[in-house]
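Regression test case RT-17, inverse folding.

Input:
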């Protein structure tokens, strides 16, 4: 009887106890078993160090402050060039909202765990706190059905998205689907427009589309100079310019990520701890 009872418990586990949302301002959602792990220290940069994304920064900050104050706010999709600070902006905006005195939690959800999102939303719905549900590097392959679970977060279902939850996602793709997948659906369907409508319409459910584009050389150098000033790394402008341009040439491009990687190398050579 005990073995049977244990097997039934595994098949239908007891409901999760309400997590202690006072334990931290940031959490990571895990499954098997379902749990929200508090994150004592979030890996992020200061909002002032994000260069070349002024419009996206201001738009996302305004939207997040509105939400933290209990006002209407949109889900946001940050899409575009890799390494240009999409996920860094989400985390930096959260820190800025906290610094302004607003109570706001951020919960990171992995793309692979999207099928469990209904269980997560039920936990968040029962809390008095307000949450940014954050999914980094969101995209779907041709045989991936996880996007159907995402619709419940954005609009779908009878219950809809909880009033105390807003969803932010980052992606390299504007429509979250690879172009060849959309083209294949269009070419093989009886009604091409209807075949791709379900998949393309997913990104339409985000009220905010914030585009990130490759940075200019001036922005790239300004990023590095900002990091140097913030962390006390001393270097002449002419030397920084020459070394930074050489670094980007070896990487085959420039971005915020490349700027940080150069700065990490520079700080190490200068003996400065970051």
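Golden output:
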């Amino acid at each position: 009887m005990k073995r049977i009872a244990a097997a039934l418990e595994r098949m239908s586990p007891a409901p999760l106890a309400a997590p202690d949302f006072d334990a931290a301002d940031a959490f990571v959602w895990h499954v098997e078993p379902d749990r929200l792990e508090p994150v004592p220290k979030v890996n992020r940069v200061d909002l002032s160090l994000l260069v070349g994304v002024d419009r996206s920064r201001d738009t996302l900050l305004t939207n997040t402050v509105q939400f933290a104050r209990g006002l209407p706010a949109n889900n946001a999709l940050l899409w575009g060039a890799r390494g240009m600070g999409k996920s860094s902006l989400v985390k930096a905006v959260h820190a800025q909202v906290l610094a302004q005195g607003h109570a706001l939690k951020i919960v990171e959800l992995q793309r692979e765990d999207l099928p469990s999102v209904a269980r997560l939303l039920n936990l968040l719905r029962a809390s008095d706190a307000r949450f940014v549900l954050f999914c980094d590097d969101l995209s779907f392959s041709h045989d991936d059905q996880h996007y159907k679970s995402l619709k419940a977060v954005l609009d779908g279902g009878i219950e809809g998205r909880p009033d105390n939850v807003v969803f932010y996602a980052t992606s390299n793709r504007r429509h979250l689907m690879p172009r060849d997948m959309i083209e294949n659906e269009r070419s093989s369907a009886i009604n091409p427009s209807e075949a791709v409508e379900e998949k393309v319409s997913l990104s339409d459910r985000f009220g905010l589309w914030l585009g990130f584009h490759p940075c200019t050389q001036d922005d790239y150098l300004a990023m590095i100079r900002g990091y140097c000033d913030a962390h006390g790394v001393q270097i002449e402008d002419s030397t920084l310019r020459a070394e930074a341009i050489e670094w980007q040439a070896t990487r085959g491009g420039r971005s915020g990520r490349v700027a940080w990687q150069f700065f990490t190398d520079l700080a190490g050579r200068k003996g400065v701890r970051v």
